[in-house]
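Posting for a labmate who doesn't have an account.
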Amino acid sequence: MRPLLFFMLAAAPAMAETFPSAQWFRVHFGSPGLRVDLQAPAHISDHLVDGKLELSLRAYTELVLENNTDIALAKLQVLTPANAITRAFGAFDPLLQAGFNNTRSNQPTTSALQGASTLRSLAQPVDFSYQQLLPSGTALSVGFDAQRDSSNNAFSTYNPALSSNLAVAFDQPLLRNRGGSVTRRTILIARSNLRIGQFQLRDQVSTLLASAENAYWDVVEARENLAVQKKFLELREAALQRAQKQLDAGALLPLDIFQPKADYASAQVSVIQARQALARRENTLRQQIGADLDPNLRSLPIVVTESLSIPAVILPDRESAIRKALESRPDRLASAATLDTDDLSIRNAADALRPSVSLTGSYSSQGVGGIFNQLSNPFGSDTVITRVPGGFGDSLGQLFGFVFPVYSVGLRLKLPIRDRAAAADLSDVQIRKRQDALQLRKLEQNLRLQVLNALDDLEASQASMQQAEIARDFAEKRFAAEQKKYELGVTQLFFVLDAQTQLNLAENDVLRQSINYRRGLINLHLMTGELLAERGITLN
């Protein structure tokens, strides 16, 4: 069967833009959208015929999938675990920081060696840093800072003095948190949770679709019941007219007319109640397809076109039906996927018990530049003999010439002598996995019971429907016989009325059993997890 509808997510998962794209500026400096535009019911007007909504089961199902509010809510629930994957990748997002400061100070001096009676200085530092966690678990940082210092200190060798510094450092875990399998574990857990969310979406949509189809058959049942009650009213009216004619002709006692009149009034009540029940169930149907949201659609009459003809269905073997349910039921698949998440959590908790051993290293280089003042006696005179001009280029030349390098390599060890918190965390996730395994086993037991009960109910409905049809045939024959005998004058009106009542009950029973059989089919597909596939629905 051609798919009825392909589900697309209502909104794409959050995607982080990269600096300095135009979208990055719009996201980070623009106002967030506060307006929520809800989609109006779609494609309902495509089924308007002569001012009425004509709905086959297929068309109705398409409208439910597209317009039903509960299904729209279910689809949105998948977006949160989808965003969690993006959030998990955020651990590897680089960070750039920058800073600038301008400090001017005037300080009194207490020594001639401070170079001035009032020391005036200006400091202008600037710094840049880049940090990122690599998939291997390595924490990398690169920093650059520069500073311009000037003062009225007569003993300053460089004034203004320009300094720069470049530093590169890394921290590589060697035991705990080592390797991509650890750093990406949060991403794997998020992906597993998304898979669970998708299974839960299938389960919710299956349940909601089954409820919607039952609402459709409720309308069919109410429609057919109204037709049965109208037919019954016609029989009661004919019986009353016949009795009235007999009373007028003197062939019937006046006291015998009350029963036909009472039966006719009772049949009128049944028609009124059947019409009210149909109206209520049509209102439920309008809500399922979202027609109640549109003032132009909510008052239109609904015509359901499906008949009560029962398709020939061969019931599956019990064990094969159970096997299908184990393979296809989304709630069972979601529960099984939870065990995969538990495994990842156990590995995380076990990794937290290991000692932390890290290899650290850093390299830095410095440079100094500016206007060089050669003093006649730097320890006792502030007379400048020579002033050598310079600038920031001198500082950078020394920096990238690696004239003044600093190297550092080390090991850092964190040895938990006793780590009860981490041990308790590991025990908790192990207990949780055991609980989830038992929940899965319990679910599979319930699943087996539900499939068996669904098969039993369907078999009983099938047999009941066949017997109800046989009983209706006999009720029709009995009514025809009583009617014939009454016309021949060999029976009383009471037996004709009773035969009418029994025929009405038999027709109602056939209607009820037919609808129950339809519902039993829906329930069986739901219990085996095949409802969406049977309806040709694919969730993407």
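Reply:
Got it, the structure tokens are right above this. The chain is about 55% helix and 20% strand.
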